[in-house]
Amino acid sequence: MILKNWYYINLFLITIKASFISNNFKSVTQMEQEKLRKILSNSSEASGQSIYSHLQEIFSYILREKPEKLYENFESISSFVKANRFLYSEPRPASDLQNIQSRWTVLSNWIRDNEKLLEKYKVKTSQGFIVESHPPALHSLSDFLKDAKLLEFAGISFGEEETYRIQMSLKRLMRSSGAKEMRFWGKIYGREKDYYIAEGLLEGAGKEDVERPKGFEKRGEGVNKYTYWVTDSILEDWIELPDVSPQQIIVARQIKKVFTGNLNADILSYPIFPGKERHLLRAQIARITAATVLAPKGIFKVNEEDPQVIELEEELAVPTFEELSSDESWVHLHANILKAGRVTHAEPEVPEGEEVDVEEIKAKMQDEDPVVDRIKIISEDEPIAEEEKGWQFSLIGDNQVYGAKPPAEGSVCYAANVIRNVRWPGSLTIHKGGAWVNVYIGYGVKRLDPTFNPISPPDVLPDPEDPVEQPEPTPLVAPEELESDSDAEKENDEED
Fold it and tell me: How far apart are CA 92 and CA 77, in angstroms?
């Protein structure tokens, strides 16, 4: 093999010689060939290899592997041979090994950059020792990786990479915002960009001293119990949405608008919406949350002291899989929004100096706009039509009930319950194996009757009636004189 390599190397040199002859019209002497061989044999100080030895290895590879398209792939073959060369070196003495400097690679640089991120968690004690502290633990962050598995039963998938990015982005948002609860609320489509939405419960919500407009429910209560963040890219920062006012919810119920994806876009509608697109988005999120977030019956109960607070049942009575396939076993988790745009009625205004029965006013407000009890069964919702309910149930997978493996007791079913809200297309509740998830993926527009018509402006007032002629308020001649002149004219007419 070595003899063959020498043969091909000499052949390569002869080719170079022929090139010189054809291009420069002069021959290459034997001395010039030896000079070229010496130049090619000069080794690099770093690798200890030369072009001459590298060409020998390339020719050996070509003879052994016989690759195709040598001209097009010659650079790739050269790089491959150079990267896969086995270099043997004599063992170095111990004195040299002690002075070897560390060799940084791409992975080493990545490790060094990540170690810098952990510097803030290293604490130096009084004795001079460095102790590594751990980042603060998160309170309650939903595992979107598991929730995504449930969403696949409804035909929804973000992909493995995007799902992992969403989970890590929610984790980062929870640390930066200080929220004690966090979950992925869903996604709302827009004409230009889409909104990823996260729902969280902030620490100390409801204790703020910021003045609110009249009837505004403060943060941590009613429609503003949860805080919402949006982003059009999971790799970018989240933007906190403002709290919603009752007037914004009232007008949002009267208009139908597809979002653009720009939080600062104007809302051109009638009635005029009091805010930008970020305010309309927040109002629609509040409406969807109150109407579509469900929980199995028998898990939560209403607090006896405060009807707006729910808590876990002391003895959980979770319905079976067969029972969860019916609308009798699912309840609304959040309070219903009143026509006034609030969860509860605001305190009535009493003019100063007037004696008004406040309780009578409250009773009248309750009669006109009744407050719905919490933990309401969804079967009590008003149907859309005579033969169409507001919820659709479907079973996905093997709905056969099997006996649980010991030591577990009871039964188990591997199918999934998929519940869709008809009024809000895109709202889903998926239940499987004792776990359930609520998510919304849609345009944020409520389904209305097919004959939906926008609210028309008020009627134009009719033209006023023509005014009746009236006597001059300030005549130049007194009325008595006018009467005497008219009487004289009448007498003259009678004489004639």
Answer: 32
